[in-house]
Structures are given as C-alpha cells and as structure tokens.
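Quick one before lunch.
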Amino acid sequence: MSLADTVIPLHSATAGQPPAVPAGLSQVELTELVAAELKARDAVLVAHYYVDGALQDLAQATGGFVADSLEMARFGRRHAAKTLVVAGVRFMGETAKILSPDKRVLMPELEATCSLDIGCPADAFSAFCDAHPDRTVVVYANTSAAVKARADWMVTSACALPIVKHLKDQGRKILWAPDKHLGGYIQEQTGADMLMWDGSCIVHEEFKATELVLMREQHPQAKVLVHPESPAGVVALADVVGSTSALLKAVTDDPTGTFIVATDNGMMHRMRQLAPQAVLLEAPTSGRSATCKSCAHCPWMAMNALEGVLHCLRTGSGEIQVDETVRVKALGCIERMLDFTAASAANAAATTPPASGFVPNIGAA
Ligand code: SF4
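Model of the iron/sulfur cluster complex:
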C-alpha cells in the first residue's frame, strides 16, 4: 500500500476510526504522508520563516511557499488550491481568509497566537480609537481581524515607513497599534505625530543592546541585522533594519559575509539554505542584562509541526472562520495598503533606502 492510499476522509478521526496521525512514523515517512495528503486534498502549505525547518522544506517541496505574513496571504489568494494550510500564527490565517474568503483556511494549531495580537483586544482598542477621532488609525499586520476592521490602514514592517510618511505629508495625525518599538522607529524616521498603543513582541523585545555591543566587538567584521520590533537601543546598533524579507535579502546579497541576526532564530533555516557560506550569529537575548523567556524563538510559531498539518488536513480541524461583516471591514484597510504598495512598486527600484538601512520590501513578522 502506498502512502497516498492511507488518505482517509475528512472528519473520520473519531472513536473506532484510525487515528488521524499514525504513531511511530519516521520524519521522512511523515513528510511523505503529509505531502500525499496535501495533493489528495487539493491543498497548499504556506509557511512563515519562523516555523520549523521541516515545515518550510515541505512547503517548498510541494509547490507551497515560505515567506513573511503578507506574501503568505498574497500567495494564498492567487494560488488555485481550494484549501490553504497556514503554518504560522493565527493572525496570518485570518489575513489569508480575509483575502481568500472562498477558500478553506486551515491551521495546524489554532492556539498559536502572538503577543502583539493578545495585547491589543478589539474592545479596548476600539475605545482608544473612539477617544481620538481626529487620528488616522494605522495597525500592524500582527492584529486580529476585529482590530483590522477598526483601522483605516494595515501596514507591515516594511511598508509602514512610506505609508506613515505619506499620511504625514497629507497632514494626518496617526493612532498607531500595537507594536511600540516598530512605531517608535517609524516615528523617529518620519517625524510623524503618532499616538502609540503599548504593545510589544516578546521575542524581539528580549534582544539586548549591552550584550550586542560586546558581541560586535568580538566579531568586528559582522553586519548587524535587526528587525524593527526590537528595542530602540538594539535598532540603533544595526547596519540593516528591516522586515524578515529585507534581512534575508541582506544575507543573500553578501553570501559569504558574517551577520549578527536580531530576529526569531527560525529565520536562520532559510538564510542558511540561501547563503550556506554565510556566518550567522544569533543576537544575544541573554547575558548580564538577561530576562530571556523565549530565547529568540516564538513559542507560538514553535507550536506548528508536521503532525499538526496532517491532523488538520485529515480531520478538518483548525479551520479559520472570520465573521463576514468583520471580514469586509478588515479587507478595506488591507486593500488600501495593497493599492498603495502596488502604486509605489514602479518607483521602488529607484527609491534610495534611508541612511538607517531600512530596506523597502513587502513583509512583516
Ligand atoms: S515572533 Fe513576536 S511578532 Fe512574531 S508571532 Fe511571535 S510574538 Fe508575534
């Protein structure tokens, strides 16, 4: 019997039925089984850079995609598959569903969330917006569909800078949520009037400027790559500040270089694949000023596994649902960003990156 022959109907993993995920399989057998199941179900796997390397490899090998959150959603929207399996965190599944309402969107682990999303509940955020009606509401991708539904614009870590600059040039005052570090960086770069929500990423917040200085002294040839969800003291030490896609590009542009990388260490998998001769060092989250809880790996991204992909495919569990009224409202702020970035694309090649090294690129953590 071939692995493909083991495909079982949806919702059959009940008492008396074979388990959705057979026990005792090797990693290779499990990978082959999930690949066969994806094909049998007309499904495509879309994985974030921060999830386990085995999932990233499977996505690449089966015609899926490994990317940042926005490119994941864009890929899902244009792909012909009826089912999208999103290996990442919940807001990514929701964004995929908002952009592809006619597709089934499954997630291996519905409990996988994000500290930024958790820290910005829709009711409290809506009240904050109501208290400041004179401000244009700009939210980061790492928010729930309900929060996006309350926003005028959604941005990612890469397009936030030109969009906020555009709004500032129009004389708009901004209400920004939820990441205070990214917001602070954008404010410092643009000089915009930005009222901040107090949120942060538990992974990037742990990078330590003091220890980073010491590490750079030990590796003076290294370029420091920093995601802008990191604290300002860490960003100030960066040679390149940018989204996951921008940091990856910095490595592939110098494939034999040495880099100190301040973002989730799941990113190293793709960096090593695309630049195997590069020397990649994880930026410090520990040392004398340590309060390390995640040690540079998102606990929610880590919940994604091959077993979970197989389980959701076989049982239909982990399906993302977004209320249609919320979806339509949230779609407005996402499409505003997509239209803006599409209109800017023709000029992107001629755009000179700012002195800080922030690289225009579409992507978000
Ligand atoms: S790494 Fe940070 S921003 Fe990304 S999903 Fe995890 S908690 Fe959220």
